[in-house]
Amino acid sequence: MNHPAQLLVVEDEKNVGETLAERLQVAGFQVTLATSAARARQAWRAQAPQLALLDVGLPDGNGFELAAELRGAVPKCAIVFLTAHGNPEQRVRGLELGADDYVTKPFHFRELLLRIQNCLKRAQDLAELPGEMRGVVRIGRARVDFERFSAEVDGVSHTLTHKECAVLRLLASRAGKAVSRDEILDKAWSADEFPTSRTVDNFIVRLRKLVEPDADEPRVIRSIRGVGYLLNEMHHE
Q: Which member of 71, 110, 130, 223 has the greatest number of CB atoms within 10 A?
């Protein structure tokens, strides 16, 4: 028997948050409501959520900073940003932080519900690793643990976002073969997020900083002109 997914709703407008939490509970989720960043931290320490809905504007911080903390504390948690602004720069920032989705207020509840379900499905797919991806995998200079969403470089552990993990895992599953930008977008992002090829390139830049001996002269993740990227080095430890 499947247990209801645990959601954390971080919304500083009490009435909005309570209404949203109630409707999500009716839809079959377990929901914890937090009206501030401080209460959100208390909530995820008490019970790790599977997905967090984070309002960008909070009385004691902002959702972007809180997302970075949450990602470090609960790496497997999916993150959806809620914002009253349709600001493209905020959307890009959310994507760059590895958000699983980004919803602008006002929104239709059924649309939000569908996005939550899609995010949970993608997170579950990411957690179901094929045998060759289990355990610690050496990619360039990084020791990558896909199950823990982490990469260790020179003894320092780095948390991987869901998006970073999805991109790196796709490349690793095709090691030695070129993967197109379009396929990377299709596998790691939803169409609702409006990602672009530049979004993929930015994630590759970040991953290269982890895995390459020299990020300015990439050898581990090679660029294939007019196609996409190819992972050169991977082996199990």
A: 71
Strand partners, 46: none
HEC readout, 89-106: HHHHHHHHCCCCEEEECC
Prediction pTM value:
0.69
Contact assessment for residue 102 and residue 193, using Cβ atoms and an 8 Å cutoff: yes
**Domain span including residue 191:** 131-236
Task: Give the dihedral sign, CA 26/29/34/39.
Answer: positive
Instruction: For the chain, list residues with pLDDT below 70.
Output: 1-2, 85-98, 126-134, 190-195, 234, 236-237
Task: Tell me which long-range contacts 219-227 makes (C-beta under 8 A, separation of at least 24).
Answer: 219/140, 220/139, 220/140, 221/140, 221/171, 224/178, 227/178, 227/180, 227/181
| Helix%, strand%, coil% for the chain, nearest 5 | 45, 25, 30
Q: What is the pLDDT of residues 115-163, one digit of tens each?
A: 898 888 877 776 665 655 667 889 999 999 988 888 999 999 988 888 8
Do 188 and 175 have their domain in common?
yes
Query: 151 is written with which tokens?
Result: 């990469």
